Structure formats: C-alpha cells, structure tokens
Amino acid sequence: MASPGQYSARLKRFQSQLEEVEDQLLADSQLAISQRSAQTYMQRDRIGPRDPDDTGPLRIQTDRLVRSLTGAREGTQGRQEGISRVRTDGTKVLITIGTRVPYAATHEYGDPSRNIPRRSYLRPALDDETDTIRQIIADGVIKALRIALTE
Question: Where are the alpha helices (H) located in the chain, listed in sequence order?
Fold first, then answer.
C-alpha cells in the first residue's frame, strides 16, 4: 500500500501530465468542431445574390470564418482570430472554442434589424460533437493518469 506521501507525489505527477496533454486535447476538440461546422452547417458560395428569404446554411465566401475555427492565423499580421483555450479546474476540464471574426456572431445568432436570419454553425456543431469531445478528454485524462501512475 502506498503512503500518503506517495499518493501526493502521484497526484502531482498526474496534474503535471494533464497539463502536458491539454494542448492536444484542445487541438483535437477544435478540429472535431471546426470540421463538423464547415461540413454540415456551411456550404461553398453559389454565384449570385442571396434571396432574402433564403435561410439555408451559411455560405463560405472567403474561408476566413472556417480558418478561424481551426485556429489558423489570418492576414499579413498573423493575427489569431480563433478563440481556443483549455483549463483544468479540479476534476473538470474546460474547453473554450470560438472566433473573433467580426461577422461570426451575426450569422450565429442572426440580426433581425438587418434582415439577416440566424444561420448557426458553431453551437450545433458543438452539440453534434459533444460525445466525441468527451471521449477525447477522457482518453487524455486516462493517458495522463497512466503515465503518472507508472513513473
């Protein structure tokens, strides 16, 4: 049986290992959401103006929004337009994924004052990929735990 000091050391190793896998958990989760968003809730633009009554999927015209969801750098300044972070809080792993693209919220929530209907792309993708993300996180936590217990 391990002593309290050994348990404490294992717990510290686990926390350290969990911090090491955070970036990979984030990258894998971000990829799952961005792919689902682009493949299911967006479409390549068709030539011509959009009919005002068309509430179909969000049209991809420049790829800027899609690239921001994948974490790609934008423009000559190399500015990061995606929002992505992961943090652990006790027994929770919290992942935040989003975008700083100015028109993103307009399409996600709509803007009735400008006759722009809601064309959600991020929230439904997150709903669709929740089980995948839970599995990504569980696999990462198990990996960190195994490493911590075998060292």
Answer: 4-41, 64-70, 104-109, 123-150
* Residue 53, in any domain of the structure: no
This prediction's pTM: 0.77
Pair 17, 144: CB distance under 8 Å: yes
- List, for residues 29-43, the tens digit of each pLDDT value: 888 998 999 889 988
Q: Judge whether 52 lies within some domain.
A: no
Is 51 contained in some domain?
no
Question: How distant, in Å, are the alpha carbons of 19, 23, 92, 102, 121 from that of 86?
Answer: 9, 7, 10, 23, 21
What's the domain range around 146?
Answer: 4-43+60-150
Number of structural domains found in the chain = 1
